[in-house]
Amino acid sequence: MTFKIDTKEKFHVITINEPVLSANMTEDLRKLLVEVTQNHVKHIILNLAPVEKIDPEAAFFTAGQQQAAYEEGRSFVICGMLQPVKDAFKDADLLDTLNYTPTESEAWDIVQMEEVERELLNGEE
Questions:
Q1: Tens of pLDDT along 53-87?
Q2: pTM (global) more than 0.90
Q3: Which domain, by its residues, includes 74?
Q4: Residue 50 needs a FRET pair 20 to 30 A away by CA distance; which of 62, 81, 86, 112 works?
């Protein structure tokens, strides 16, 4: 699996540079997500713009990784999905559960807003 990681101050942008995100790539993606969140930068933006097709198993895996991140208090936003990828998430009844944006810039905004929200909520306790 080929990918690009762009590390910002508060998050990593991981761009999957493959036309197909298949089920057999999920283990590599899992390892990558664990690796990049081992430092102080724990939030993820997963840019799927280059992905033209996603297997149902990979869609379920990605949605599960996003849910796990939120349970751990980390942001995980998906961006840049082409219509066939969105359709695959929709067909798997996952699209409504995802935190996704059309553009990477909008994903940056969501991560930053969620960070402020977490800081405010932690300050009230």
A1: 999 999 999 999 999 999 999 999 999 999 999 99
A2: yes
A3: 3-124
A4: 112
**How many domains is the chain built from?**
1
Q: Are 42 and 32 in contact (CB under 8 A)?
A: no
CATH classification of the domain holding 9: 3.30.750.24
Structure tokens at 119: 């800081």
19-60 pLDDT, tens per residue? 999 999 999 999 999 999 888 889 999 999 999 999 999 999
Using N-to-C axis directions, what is the helix angle for 26-36 and 56-71, rounded to 10°?
Answer: 20
Whole-number pLDDT of residue 82: 98
For 59-80, b where at least 16 C-beta lie within 10 A, e where not — what string? bbbbbebbeebeeeebbbbbbb
